[in-house]
Design brief:
The complex is a heterodimer. Helices cover 0% and strands 55% of the residues of chain A. By secondary structure, chain A is mostly beta strands. The termini of chain A are far apart. At the A-B interface, strand 5, strand 6 and strand 10 of A face strand 9 and strand 10 of B.
Chain lengths: 110, 114
């Protein structure tokens, strides 16, 4: 069965700095990979997803993620973050069902 | 377009009282439906999922139950709430058998049991 590990529970960064949120997965077959964002007291919104093809996936709000099959990773990146990016980010993998990581709380400081 | 509605947004209930949270989906047929819970500072815990009317699967033993009386309606219930039932409850739907579309989440219900 598939599983997801988000390596950092909290990531504090300063505004306009780059950020990387790490995600590793395990699965015995090809999977689909997702990143979701959750703003305070809201549901999860889809940021981006990898299904097949190009390993670099671009999403909303300037985020992108790179699928690395050999390292079984799907790290999320943004070259310059804003205060409004402060939120919880969830990595997810789908095989027979969807499995979510524990989440990474990104805090952007002024 | 598909939309998902979840209510109420916030709820404060005394210990021992009943609970009913409702989730409805519009613009799609035969969705897979899910109930998740987020405890403070923790990730998502899958509580129940349903692939059709009257079909409920439970992921963890607990004080809660779920029902799907109609194709696009999913209800989370409890007869007697416990303090440990406090949390943020999320409903989600997906296209049945097509995980490439991912899940679409409702806006959540913040439940505080006092």
């Amino acid at each position: 069965a598939q599983s997801v590990t988000q390596l950092d529970s909290q990531v504090p960064v300063f505004e306009e700095a780059p950020v990387e949120l790490r995600c590793n997965y395990s699965s015995s077959v090809s999977v689909y990979l997702f990143w979701y964002v959750q703003y305070p007291n809201q549901g999860l919104q889809l940021l981006l997803k990898y299904l097949s093809g190009s390993t670099l996936v671009k999403g909303i709000n300037g985020f992108e993620a790179e699928f690395n099959k050999s390292q079984t990773s799907f790290h999320l990146r943004k070259p310059s973050v804003h205060i409004s990016d402060t939120a919880e980010y969830f990595c997810a993998v789908s095989e027979n069902d969807m499995r979510f990581g524990a989440g990474t709380r990104l805090t952007v400081k002024p | 377009s598909q939309t998902i509605h979840q209510w109420p947004a916030t709820l404060v209930q005394p210990v021992g009282s009943p609970l009913s949270l409702e989730c409805t989906v519009e613009g799609t047929s035969n969705p897979n439906l899910y109930w998740y819970r987020q405890a403070a500072g923790r990730g998502l815990q899958l509580l129940f999922y349903s692939v059709g009317i009257g079909q409920i699967s439970s992921e963890v033993p607990q004080n809660l139950s779920a029902s799907r009386p109609q194709d696009r309606q999913f209800i989370l219930s409890s007869k007697k709430l416990l303090l440990s039932d406090s949390g943020f409850y999320l409903c989600a739907w997906s296209v049945g058998g097509h995980l490439i579309y991912g899940y679409t989440f409702g806006s959540g219900t913040r439940l505080t049991v006092v």
